[in-house]
Design a protein that fits this description.
This protein is an alpha/beta fold and 360 residues long. It folds into three domains: 136 residues, Glutaredoxin (3-Layer(aba) Sandwich); 73 residues, no CATH class; 74 residues, QSOX sulfhydryl oxidase domain (Four Helix Bundle (Hemerythrin (Met), subunit A)), CATH 1.20.120.1960. 37% of the residues lie in helices and 14% in strands. It is built from 13 helices and nine strands. The strands form two sheets. It has a five-stranded mixed sheet, sandwiched between helices. The protein has a four-stranded mixed sheet with strand order 7-6-8-9, sandwiched between helices. Helix 7 links the parallel strand 6 and strand 7. Helix 4 crosses helix 5. The radius of gyration is 25 Å and the shape is elongated.
Length: 360
């Protein structure tokens, strides 16, 4: 998602039914109940590896990066809360968090990347760094709660060894030719294990993570549907007998192998807003001014000086269609004039200009 598209979309959100979600809650801070609210002050203690223990034991984090004044970002808040609730038992391997990138200052770029929002990232304890879970353009108004979680898991499986370590519990498919071959593939120290027979690696991944508390003692291996050991999809409990041979017993796995639906009751803010009439929302001039002031003071600086031309283009669109107060409209006019004869502008220069006007 390009800078200009993102900011133009925010302008039109001022006129859309998602306006109610542009207004900040709790003085600009979102409340999180299931996802961990990450801040700069708790970032190190929550995420980074403890020097007194092996990094390999620290969980990966799936983190939702958002801007608290962004209506489009807030449409995904209930989705992420639902994902965090579902994944509460995964904490040994994966934890779910959220970070407000609007809280970053102009000089802070180590946590939030200079990209469009909303954005989902994976924190890797082995590298003490984050990377995109998936391209932000992939999500749309039709994105389901389970989609975001599945996309993140899919990316995690690709980077597991360099991100978490070789003890990542989700394994590659095994292909034993017969029961003796299976016996040789299972380490001798393993007395109990499970076989998940499916060609769907995502269902397998979810099953493993939902058994996070026991998977280290009872590892779960995946077989393709066409294999030499079992006759059907499903789950088999495996045990090594005293004589060293393996015995298998199929267990009821109907619910486990069904299509994954995170939470049928979750209705996104985006869908709820479609049911409301725009005229009934009645944002005040103060509301509109506050939203734009937030964008100018807390996010534009992040785009300077690299995207100076895009910033000017965005301001021109906002000025042309601005529905707020005359005072703010005049400020935008003066700001555009200030920028018009410049070829570049730093974030500090923008801050100095704003402070000198004493308007916002």
């Amino acid at each position: 998602m390009q800078f200009s598209y993102f900011y133009l979309s925010i302008v039109f959100l001022l006129f859309s039914s998602s306006w109610t979600y542009v207004v900040n809650e709790q003085d600009g801070k979102w409340s999180w109940s299931n996802a961990k609210h990450l801040t700069r002050s708790n970032w190190t203690s929550s995420l980074k590896a403890n020097n007194n223990s092996s990094k390999i034991h620290h969980a990966v984090w799936f983190i939702y990066n958002y801007l608290n004044y962004c209506g489009y970002c807030k449409r995904f808040k209930p989705i992420w809360e639902s994902a965090a609730q579902y994944a509460a038992g995964w904490s040994r391997f994966i934890k779910i968090g959220a970070y407000d990138c609007a809280s970053e200052s102009a000089s802070e770029h180590d946590i939030c990347q200079d990209d469009a929002y909303p954005q989902w990232r994976i924190y890797c304890p082995l590298t003490n760094s984050t990377q995109l879970a998936f391209d932000s353009d992939r999500q749309t108004a039709d994105t389901k709660p389970e989609d975001i979680l599945i996309w993140s898991i899919k990316k995690m499986n690709k980077i597991a060894h360099q991100c978490y370590g070789k003890s990542w519990p989700i394994r590659d498919v095994i292909e034993p030719k017969n029961i003796d071959d299976l016996n040789n593939l299972i380490p001798k120290r393993i007395k109990q294990f499970q076989l998940f027979v499916s060609d769907d690696i995502l269902l397998y991944s979810l099953y493993v993570l939902n058994n996070s508390k026991t998977v280290s003692q009872e590892p779960i291996y995946r077989l393709a549907v066409k294999n030499s050991i079992t006759q059907d999809t499903g789950i088999w409990k495996g045990m090594k007998n005293d004589d060293g041979q393996i015995s298998l017993e199929q267990v009821n796995s109907t619910k486990t192998t069904d299509q994954f639906v995170l939470n049928k009751k979750v209705i996104s803010h985006a869908n709820q807003s479609l049911e409301k009439k725009i005229g009934s929302l009645k944002p005040t001039l103060t509301d509109i001014d506050s939203a734009v002031v937030w964008m100018i003071k807390n996010d534009l600086h992040r785009k300077l000086p690299k995207l100076f031309d895009e910033v000017k283009a965005w301001l021109n669109v906002v000025y042309t269609y601005y529905p707020g107060s005359d005072n703010m409209h005049n400020f935008l006019h003066d700001l555009i004039n200030f920028m018009s004869n410049r070829t570049t502008l730093s974030s500090n220069e923008l801050k100095h200009y704003i402070d000198s006007t004493s308007v916002i």
